[in-house]
Every structure is written in C-alpha cells, then in structure tokens.
Amino acid sequence: MTDGMHLRTCSLCEAMCGLEITVEGGRVASIRPDRDDVWSRGYICPKGVALGDLHHDPDRLRAPLIRDGASWREASWEEAFAEVERRLHPVLQRHGIGAVAAYIGNPTAHNFSLSRYAGAFMPLSGITNLYSAGTVDQWPKNVVGALMYGGIWTIPVPDLDRASHLLVLGANPSASQGSLMATPDVLGKLDAIRARGGKVIVVDPRRTGTAQHADEWIPIRPGTDAALLMAMANVIFAEQRVDLGHLECVVRGLDELRDLCAPFTPEAVADTCQIDAATIRRLARELAEAETGVVYGRIGTCNQEFGTLASWLVEVLNIVTGNLDRPGGSMFANPAIPSLATLRPPEFAGGFSFGRYRSRVRGAPEVLGQFPVSCLAEEIAVEGEGRIRALITIAGNPVVSAPDAGKLDNALPSLECMVSLDNYLNETTRHAHVILPGASPLEQPHCGDMIWGWSVRNGARFSPAVFPLAADRPAEWEILLALAAIAGGQKASEIDTAVLDDLFFGGLVGALCQLEGTRVHGRDAGEIVAATGGRGPERMTDFMLRIGPFGDAYGASPNGLTLDELRAHQHGIDLGALVPRVADALQTEDGMIDLAPAHIVADVPRLSARLERRDGGLLLVSRRHLRSNNSWMHNVERLVRGRDRCTLLMHPRDARDAGVADGQRVSVRSSAGAIEVAVEVSDEMMPGVVSLPHGWGHDRDGIRLGVASRHAGANNNLLAPGELVDVPSGNAVVNGIPVEVSGVDEP
Predict the structure, then answer these.
(1) pLDDT digits (tens, 9 = 90+) for 227-262
(2) Rounded to whole angstroms, how far apart are CA atoms 331 and 352?
(3) How far is CA 574 from CA 7, 230, 233, 456, 566, in A?
(4) Domain range summary for the chain, segments of one domain joined by +
(5) What global pTM score does this model have?
(6) What 3-state class would DSSP assign to 538?
C-alpha cells in the first residue's frame, strides 16, 4: 500500500528539498516540507508541491504509443520494442550505426535511472552521434573544468555559508534555485551574507529577483561579461593585488595571464560593457580586499558570445584573489556518491583535445565528443553520405529548447526512424514513430549523485518510490538497455536486460578495480560484484557510495557508508561543510592548475575585436520563472495559472522608441525568425535589452498537453540563429541576440 506519509527528496531541480508526501486512497493528498531534512531543513519551492500533479496528470503517458499514419495507438511493451526494431534495423543494415543519433535532455540529470544508465546506453548501443541540452546550457563550464582542473565536471561552487563577499553574474537563483550550485533557499543565504556584514553584488541586464536580495545591481550589456572580468583581472594585476595563497605551488601560467589582461583596462572596456571604469575598479578592489570573497557566474555567462572566456575568467578571479579552495570562497564539493559522468572518458586518457573531427554539413568542430545541438537539424535534412536517418531522444524536447528550433521541427518528419523515451506527446515526440513512456518522479526512487558534485555542503539521501511501478512496465534503465541492444543489432524478442545489466556492471567494476586511485584498486572484481546486492541503479548506487569518499570500501573502512546504511537515515545524512581539497580534486596530467589554457586563450583576440565593435539596437536575453522548469512544467495548472508570464520585458525608453505600449502585442524579429508576444514595459530591464522566457511555445498541432496548450506562450528559440555559437565550446548563443520589435496592433 502507498497510503500514508512518505519522505522524499524533490527531484525537479538542484535544490534537492526534502518533502513529506501524504497519500490517501492512492492519490497524493498533500506535499509539505520535511522540517527534519538535514539538507533543506523545511525549505520548499512551488515546484515541489506540484509533484503530485505531475504524477496524476491525465496527459502523462502510461503505455507506449505507436504511430499509425497520422494517429497514434497504445501498444504493449513487446509491440513497442518490436516496432523499434522494425524501423531501426533497416536503417542500420543500409547505412550503419553512423546514421543513428541520440539526443539527451536536461531531466536526465535529475532522474534516478536515466542519470546512471545514459552512460551505459551510449557504449552498448554503439551510437557515436550524440547531441544534448549541454550545448545550450553549460558546455563552457565543462571545457574550463577539463582544461583547468582536469575533469569535465570539476566545477567549484561558492561556499555561501561562509562567504563575506559574493559577485553574481548571469545567474538568477531566485528563479532557478541555484544552477551548478546546489543548495536550498539561496535567497536566504544571500540575506545571511548581508546580515553578517558582507556584500552581495548582482551583474545582470535585468534587475532580477536575486538583485532584490543584493546590495547592488549593476546592469551590463549582454555578451560582455568576459570583458568586464578581464578588466577586473587587469586591475588586480596592475595594483599588485594578486594573492595565490596556498595555491601558489599548484598554479602555472600567471605571467601569460598578466600579459593577456594588460590591454583590457577598465577604460578600454567601459563603453562595451556599459559600466563605467570607476565601478569596474571598485568591483576588483572589493573582491581582492574581501575577507572571504567569491565570483559566481552561470547560464547567462555560458550561453552567450564569449561563454568560455567568461566562465574561465570567473575561475581566474577566484584564483588570483586567493579565494579558490578556501572556506568562504569557491570550493570543490566531495560527493558521497561519485557520478559515472565524472570519470574521464577513455578517449581523453592522455589529455583533452578539441576539433578531432568536424560535422558533415557545417564543419563545426567537435568539443568533448559533441557538436552544437543546432547542427542536428541540418544533419537530418541535408542529403549525402553520413546523413542522420534515425534519432533516439531521451527526456528532451529540443523542438522547443534548441536554437533555430523551427529548422529542427521541419527536419524531424524526414527521419526513417524516431524513438522517444518521454512521458508526454509534446512538440518533439509528436514526430516520433514510437514513444516509450518513463516513470513519474514518484514511481521510482531518488538518490542524487552528480548534483552533489556542486553542492555547497556535503551530504546524501536515498528516497524510496512513493508509488509502485506497474508490474508489466519496465523501469527506465531497462528501457535504455533494451534500446541500446536494438541499436546494437539485437532482436527485440531476444533481449535480456538483466544479462545486459550484469555485463555493464561487471565491466564497470572491473575497470575501476584496475584504475589507480580508486578505493577498490587492486581488488578482485568478481568479489566486489558478488558483494553488491540489488540490480540496476540501486546496485550502481550502492557500489559508487561504497567506493566514494565516505563509503566502507567493501570492508576497508568498516564504519563507512553503504546503501543500506543510507536508507536507514530517512531524513538524509549531513556530511559536513566543504573543506579545502584541491590536491584531491585536480585530475590534470601534471597536477597543476593551468591559468592560461591554449584552447581558451586562443579566443582572446576575438574578445579584443569585440571592443572595437559598436553595435546599437536591441538585444534579446532569456529568463526563467520560479514556477517553470525549462519546457516541461507547463502542463501543471497550479504552476501556470495567474498572469501571463510569457511576455517580452522592455524598458520604458525602448518601448517609447518602438511606439509600443504595455500589454500590446508585438512582433519580435531576428535573423532566424519572428514571433508575436505581449509586451510588458518595466524598468527592471536596462535600456537596449529585452527579455523573453525560454521553454514556451506549446501551440503546435498534434501535442497532448491540455494545460500547456491553453498557456502556449511563444518560443524564443525560434529567434536564436543556429550558427551563433561560442567558439571554444560550441555552446549556443541564446543571450545577446539582435532583434527588432514593432507593434502588430494599435497601442
């Protein structure tokens, strides 16, 4: 029986709040904060309360769908996998695995099964064409982590609990609850910094909800954060404020960095950033003089024209002011359950390289094994050898969330085979031939791993499923293994996912037993496998927990954690504040932090040229709302009711110049396309910049999203030119897009 009160970690975002879920008569009756949760301590946001709505949503798919001409029919799982085989195997026979691609969406990182088995899906399937939401989100962070610290997911996090000075750029945790910075109640932590005499500064084109909890808001021209940060570094060098502290023996490239910064004086960048030189100098001095200071840059600094340079310079400033790897500064978390994603891919065993191959149509260079997601449409649409003819999407909706979304929407119908693992018939999956529904968040356990890698405090928690999965339904990890086997050429009727799971798990254990530095190095792999109970992601979680920094290491540390021990702590385990651990965190070949990686600094001349460019006109930036989560929370009535949140924010001066009034419907045009939306005149925008929320545009025919369709909004990715990318990372530029605005009716 599921009736009763269940303790649960919310899996919808990086805050990971603890919940009390009461079930009555097989339905969620209430969701309240878990005040005894060791992590969130009673904090909750509106999305957590909506988990019951997601579970009971009548539009959520419970059975596979197979396309039958222009309509759909429900099918058994056996039928569905047979249909996948029927459509995919001819593609493999005619064109090989190179004609098959996969797209992995953002919800994967928050899903108990998918987060652990996406890493199994790719090698077992043999698919090498991978596209993901990462190249619209945080790929610059991955490039910087790889080149400076030796790990694609080695991303330091602000130690908010002990910081006395915080500079925030391109981030709005009042809406996101933190991004690549896991903590509940971010705004409460900002208030606490100020209450203890510290200072919080927000640099953003918009006066966000986060700025309202800061001492100072400084508007900046979109896409110029790198110039601002370079000028701050210039001041720190020019005024001899560099203080590496205990990092002095592990940092190289300081002289090269000093030379790179020299031309970027505050006066040289002031007009470009639209921030006066005196303010830039003050920002640099206050950071250098702070007792414990930290710079935090997030998505607005990533998906812009100079995303990699901006992300790199965030790290540079934290290092040269002595704030990396010290309490109150920028620190490395120590996750109890290491994620498989943090292991260095075998192809980079000898070091990271880029542009090892190029995309077929555009010639875009590969970066960390991926091309920009905007390449996907042209790789499907353009005839020729190597054309993508089959696509598997996993928990993603790129027709809404990818730049140049219109081109992808037009290209997908030409696929010979499209399979989607998704809970909804949405803007993307409506093009599929087979849709395989996953579980609701409450139908599977939850135990974070990857997100604890950028948490502001160490901890762990395991949450059992609230509702049982129907007996005839495979778990999502089993679906992934079955798809991988079919893509690998197996017949659907002959697949045994238990055998595949054993092969994958045994191979993983064997590899880590041979890898120096692991806590099972040199141990007998068969013995470790036999000592690890369970199956699927629970077995994987037990293994990774036991070999993690707080685990029992299979008897080597008898008082260490196992999954059974973690289960017993229903409110989670607090594993303490972050501690300096740069020596353990670094995975670079020489054990040093490179302040001036060649791949990154090669982009500095492009930034120099930007200082000479004088571009007027309006620039478009995106935004998000607390009650929204990219494109997949708009079918919950309680989260979308009330005033229209999909509006174009516009400064009064710009509205006057364009001849439009508050509430008027306007046309927004870019080089990629045009949309219509209501304008909202507000001085929270700096002049010259307008803002649209991302994730909307639920007005397509053929979707089954009853609530979202009534609150369709407009898709801002129809305005994002696909060819606009940050050069070193290939990340999409969706902030700082030139647009024109005009009224489509009378004010």
Answers:
(1) 999 999 999 999 999 999 999 999 999 999 999 999
(2) 23
(3) 16, 38, 37, 12, 11
(4) 4-49, 65-132+373-446+462-492, 139-335+589-604, 496-571, 615-743
(5) 0.97
(6) helix
